[in-house]
Amino acid sequence: MTDAPPAHAVEKFRDWRFGLFVHWGLYSLPARHEWVKNRERLTDEDYQPYFDHFEPDLYDPRKWARAAREAGMRYAVLTTKHHEGFCLWDSQVSDYTVAKTAWGKDLVGPFVEACRAEGLGVGFYHSLIDWHHPEFPIDVVHPQRDDEEAKAKAAGRDIQVYADYLHAQTRELLTNYGPIDIMWFDFSYPNHTYPDGSPGHGKGRDDWRSEELMAMVRELQPDILINDRLDIPGDFVTPEQYQPDAPMQRDGVPVLWEACQTLNGSWGYDRDNLDWKSPELLVKMLVDSVSKDGNLLLNVGPTGRGEFDPRALATLASIGEWMRLHERSIRGARPAEYTAPDDCRFTQKGNRLYLHLFSWPMGHVHLHGLAGKVKYAQLLNDASEIKRIVNDPHQQAQNTTMGGVSSETLTLKLPIQKPNVLVPVIEL
Ligand code: H79
């Protein structure tokens, strides 16, 4: 047993750079956010119709895996169980599973097989929170405060009985489906203070028995990477709907990280939500993550019938077209040792430097510290040459037309028209 994953597993994860998150469960039927049970204070009885009508007749995970692969993703993480408590596999310790619905069969196994067939790494998301289990003390009913309703619901419940269940389910998932690359637990919220200053009761490592759970995960899957939401340090950190400012650190030391982002602000299928991010913004988020040595895990919430809806597919296809032309600057890439100009991001692979231009400059772009270091420059999308201008302060002609640029600076002359790609990349 080890307390860290092997180096080859870490490097594989870093090289992937881009993955698919899938949030799928009973909440896909109300189709108004995966927190609907909590947000709308739905009782188990209110929620029962979604269990009764869950019948994903169009489920074909090969289609999901192919869409991910074509978008340039290299791994996929599925919600085996979200906060609602519904299990997408035939758990032996629960009746609240897909096996007990009209559909009647495991959804996790086919997902794992589809990922493997498309060459994708496989991850399991598993909720620590469980709004269905009879021994889980629900203490977040109202998002702004602990309230009497929550206290009444939590009374007499024994979280250690729930922890046994959590451990048993994790064991099933990591025993029955072969090698799994990522375990993504969600989430801890140690005792906290609400915005109004009132104390909030939370859950953390003692509730989940996190040390013991993590040891079991490593014992069952020695190469797995475990995220950081058990309220003890994990193998990678997981900023949620947030791009960090710089490569992430823990105690001053660089740490593996993965940003997770939604397509439209909801993780579960949310039919009427119109807050869709543009493919351009999503590519920028991917580039931004890689430029800071992180991954991007981009979420799709499939419909209750088991399909990615057309808006999600169109977005993935646009990103895939960009990735087809620019994969070189992303896959296996690392941060660069140079500082990028305003509104640009650098990535680096070997002796190639990739300049990603988030806005199109005014005819030239200035690269400080790169004079004399670049043998050739080209647009990545069409391999068209980009002319380099070395700023020599001794040359009178240049001084009059291009004054004030340091001799350390390499200036690139750009076409007036922005290339017709979401984010242009210049390879140096
Ligand atoms: O699965 C997706 C989301 O459903 C889940 N994580 C992603 C991957 C997620 N939803 N919300 N959060 C994570 C953070 C929410 C925190 C809050 Fe609270 C819940 C703020 C108020 C209620 C926890 C409990 C912190 C304060 C009280």
TrEMBL record:
One function term, GO molecular function aspect: alpha-L-fucosidase activity
Keyword tags: Glycosidase, Hydrolase, Signal
A Pfam family: Alpha_L_fucos
Site note May be important for catalysis, residues: 260
Enzyme class: hydrolase
Coiled-coil residues: none
GO cellular component: lysosome
GO BP: fucose metabolic process; glycoside catabolic process
Domain Glycoside hydrolase family 29 N-terminal positions: 10-326
Record EC number: 3.2.1.51
Family assignment from sequence similarity: Belongs to the glycosyl hydrolase 29 family.
Functional description taken from the UniProt entry: Alpha-L-fucosidase is responsible for hydrolyzing the alpha-1,6-linked fucose joined to the reducing-end N-acetylglucosamine of the carbohydrate moieties of glycoproteins.
The protein's name in its UniProt record: alpha-L-fucosidase
Native source species: Kribbella shirazensis
High-level lineage: Bacteria, Bacillati, Actinomycetota, Actinomycetes, Propionibacteriales
